[in-house]
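Q: I have two molecules that I believe assemble together. Could you output structure tokens for the complex as a whole instead of separate predictions?
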Amino acid sequence: MLAFLARRMVMAIGTVLAAVVISFLLVHATDTSPGAVRLGTNATPERIVAENEALGWNRPLPTQFFDYLGDLVRGDLGTSLIDGRSIAADLADRVPVTASIALFATLLSGVLGIVLGVTAAVRGGRLARLITTGSGVALSLPVFWVGILLVYVLALQLGWLPATGYVPFTVDPAGWFTSLLIPVITLTIGGAAIVARTANAGLRQALAQEHVRTLRAMGTPEWRIRYVHALRFASLPVVSVLGIQFIALFGGSVIIENLFALPGLGQAGQAAAASSDFPALVGVVVVATLVVVVINLLLDLVVAALDPKVRAA
Amino acid sequence: MSVLPLDAADDVAAEPGSPARRQGLSEVLRRPGGLLAAGWLLFVVVASLTAPWWRPYGVAEQDLANRLALPSAEHWLGTDPLGRDLLSRIFTAGTEPLLSSAVTVLVAFGIGLPLALIAAERGPRVERVISRVTEVFLALPSTILLLAVIGVIGVRTFIIMAVLGVLISAAVYRVMLGVAQSVRTRLYVDAARVNGLGSLRVNVVHVLPSMATVIAVQAAQLYGIGLLIVAGLAFLGFGPAEPDPSWGFMIQDASSYVFNAPWLMVPTGLVLALTVIAANELADAIAGKAAGEAAPARRRRRSPALTAPLDGAAELAPADPDAVLEVRDLTIAVDDGADLVTGVSFALRPGRVLGLVGESGCGKTMTARSLLGLLPDGVSVRGGAIHWRGQDLVGRTEKELTAVRGREIALISQEPMVALDPMFSVAYQLTQPIRRFRGVGRGEARRIAAELLRNVGIVDAERVLRSYPHQLSGGMAQRVCIALALTGEPQLLIADEPTTALDVTVQAEILTLLRALVRDTGLSVVVVSHDLGVVADICDDVAVMYAGTVVESGTAAAVLDAPEHPYTQALLAANPHVPDGVPVPVRLASIPGTVPPPGSWPAGCRFATRCQFAQDQCRSPFPARPAHATGSVFCVRADELADAHVSWDADPVGAAHAPATTPTAGASR
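A: Yes, here they are, computed for all two components at once.
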């Protein structure tokens, strides 16, 4: 168990390092330079060279890399080329926004998806076909399109919820909640579909296991076979899909944030990409990777709690 | 724009390339969904690629009088805020996502598939290295990395989608590795290697074709994901620049007019959504998933009304007033299909052990399972009776059977290693039924569990209680299974090949244990086995089964010492277990031919096709006759053969009645 956790920790650190290296090399492989980005299109070549020199862009790559790592360990991600603000401070405000959307959407997807998937596996027949087909359609829909549809129905036609915008929790908790509802529902439609498919397949596989026949032969009540034994067996794939789901939502929240004008991590990434704000780009990649890695570690703990084989390893 | 887990993979990878799952293209297209999906994809691709030649308007052509128009004769799908024709723009825009998504698929498989084949071929060390690297890739937030790439190289869609392919190749590798590994464990791949085929040829000729289904499923799904991502990027403004159309930006555009022109978002969104749905539906159709998903539920039919005995092997064993279990004329059949077991009758007295013996496929396991009402889905008892302590178990509801299972009749299954739930400790799996059967508390149940384990010969009961199934050896697991079967203090134990999966030394221990249990507790046991040694070892009575029916029955001593049915004689002649003091035969007999499958059984004696002594009279129906005092024999020539003192010839080549068929199981010295 300890060896397992140690191995996962090493993997986690390796992943963050890989993210830093990849984004660092990516930024340095380009033919534009931070000086050019900072000074804009009207700058003379001489001024750009001077600016690059001042930013330390011309120092040897390894020096810059280890300087960056050193700053990173201290929590310093540098400053934006566009507005000169601290990137770490900016992202610290944004992570909670993205995290709360991803968290709510994952939880809702989990509850809804498990209920639907279990229903399909247990009931079978026409209802199962309906759920399977419905989830197949739901996971194929583009989120931005679903989002607009929901805005049209829930905000414009029915007027139940605000269309876009974000209210900080500290300003108005109720407003914060309602401002997140349409984004979360949008993400849940596809997310619940994936969870439902996984739960359905997992439960059906579980019910076909040899040990389920042993349980039947022992006269075990059907509810116990389904909801204690088979569901426990199916929980492993479901938990890992939920983890992947959260990670995908966290990294992929850029569209939903753009659509609903939510000041999250994805929006920062989009802005940085559009303006070639290199330090901000690297910062977003590093922070997103850190979050992913932490979630993966938590997921490992959950899997270890569920699966005795992992625990013993 | 979430990078979806390749979800169907788990399903397909679970049983990679099993013959039933390998379907031809025609098979896929026969499903209405698959046909529609393939048709739509083909239509969108052709219509998009040829759009410049057929589109009614140029993409930038503005009809300012008809801005934000609904569908009309001039503009079939309506117009956008600048009065541009939506139909022309949608299909012109299709080319880029449809092609660049294919690039993602090609790159992802171009990297992931060879890596998986290499890892599967080169063994654990190479596999571990590649797997670690891909795990790092999998943990990177791919959407954000794509944004970083765009920030650096600008909007070059095809390169960006190729980079996405690189990132996703890690997921493709992970799925393909599992499949490739399981394909490689199959014998024919080894055979090909032994035959000297080079590694590339083995992979191309033998491994890849078996993976074709999974590859097709994954590729179709990934294609759909790719479409969503290209469109998502364009939605964010990272797509073709205006006035060139893109699906994503057209939807972005529509979002700002959703209040006054909601129609604007419908055509583009529908085309994109339908195309992704089609890709996923195609994946499902290839995987044959929907067919499997339709009928998962476990619905037990009540057995249909009893039918008359079908064959001659009827009404034989005389009703035994002392019998605790009496099976009469049992017929088991596939629903709307062939019979699997017909006219089986036997009786079992308390404290005795009955062996059901025969080759695989003779119906012995089906018969044993029917005693608990645990036949596989789609198979049911069609006739006959199973009298158990005064009640007929045939036609009972699931609820009534549940009350019998474990409490009165318990099962020990063939494979102890998979018979226990891997997710729960031995203690949980034992105490749970103990509490249910005996109505005791937690502490008492634990004490009883430890006692049961000691009764089945486990010395270190406390340690085993704390263990999980994967920590037990096969013999230990079988002892736990026997202890589990004893939790309800049943009167009848059904042991389905209880020693087949175990090592030879462990087999003897388990048989000794079963014998001791019968002696000490007065249990009755039905043992299913193909091994006459097991039968001779622990059975009091035996019923020899062939092709779904009992051909000979009686006490074990009588049947094994003086077999009257040629099939029993043949089985004994083919059995390598030679009792002490008997000279080892020069050669073991093989039985020529194979057991005829259900549905193709001949009338009369079903063994006639393989029997040395078969004559015309064997091929028409005849009744069984009593034999071995309490049993019967189903052979029309049994008396004749006994009088003539002929028995199964171990060397059919020299036999007077040698059949024309050639032996299939090779005789060994």
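A: One point stands out. The two ends of chain B are 68 Å apart (CA to CA).
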